[in-house]
Amino acid sequence: MTASPREHTLFRKDGTVWARGLMRGKVQHGFWEWYRKDGTKLRSGRFENGEQVGAWTTYDKAGKPHKVKDFKDRTVKPDDHEP
């Protein structure tokens, strides 16, 4: 049985929130957000078993989307290793 993802927060040395998201065991799994030192959102996206997947958005200092990068689904399917 696979453990359910749990919320996790990473802090900078000065105590401000650096990132917040879900962990499954010791691996990032699910939605994550990163923040600037002033608390504004910097980036957000999803992980599947520690790998970036789907659309990842970088935000400007006003909180508006600045850039979107699409990561392909890296999930290994049973047929992927068939000759």
Descriptive report:
The protein is built from no helices and six strands. With 83 residues, the protein is mostly beta strands. It has a domain at 26-62. A six-stranded antiparallel beta sheet has the order 1-2-3-4-5-6, with no helix packed on it.
Structure summary:
The protein is mainly β and 83 residues long. It has strands at 6-11, 17-24, 27-35, 41-48, 51-59, 65-71.
| Percent in strands | over 45%
Multimeric status of the protein? single chain
Distance between the termini: 30 Å
Number of strands: 6
Largest sheet: 6 strands, antiparallel
Provide the fold topology:
Layout: E1 6-11, E2 17-24, E3 27-35, E4 41-48, E5 51-59, E6 65-71
Antiparallel strand pairs: 1-2, 2-3, 3-4, 4-5, 5-6
